[in-house]
Amino acid sequence: MMLDLQSSGSHSVDGNWRALGKLLIYCSGCTKGGLFNSIHVPGHFVYRTRFSRTSGKSFLLPQCRTDVLYVSDPCEHLDQGEEGDIGFFRGIFKSFATSKVRKMLIKREAQLHPTEACPYCKAKLWSMLQAKMVPASASCRLGAYEDAIEYYVCLNGHVLGICTLLPLSDSEEASDHSDA
């Protein structure tokens, strides 16, 4: 995992180190009636996680692309009933307190979630979907349906989200099996 969060001291990580450690190794899942409504997937430690700054750019509107966001690959949870295959992803902003995303959320008067809090640091959450700040490039990056991605950012810059994953085509499944 390549994650440069200090960069000569010119950037800071918001929140605390315990929250960051948990974010790096833990998929928060969700409970019925929580952030992601009807789905219940228990939280769990992940075997391996990759965070990418390049992927993070896909989650930012063009006017916010100078912000630095590290985003994980989706943690896949297959065959979730009507929802199909879903993926959870998480991330962290560098210097969220001074980010363009935070300024835009405030300017758009985005509402904080009334009851749910960040599973990593317990701070209040903004819905990027409600603020109309989820670019189409995010679903492409995740391999998800275009209108089936939702994510939140907390006051400390932790990101958590969910998407409905596109099914693999027969040719992709065949190439996966031939590599084994």
Automatic annotation (TrEMBL):
- Name the domain of life this protein comes from: Eukaryota
Protein's name in the database = EID1-like F-box protein 2
Identify the species of origin.
Solanum pinnatisectum (tansyleaf nightshade)
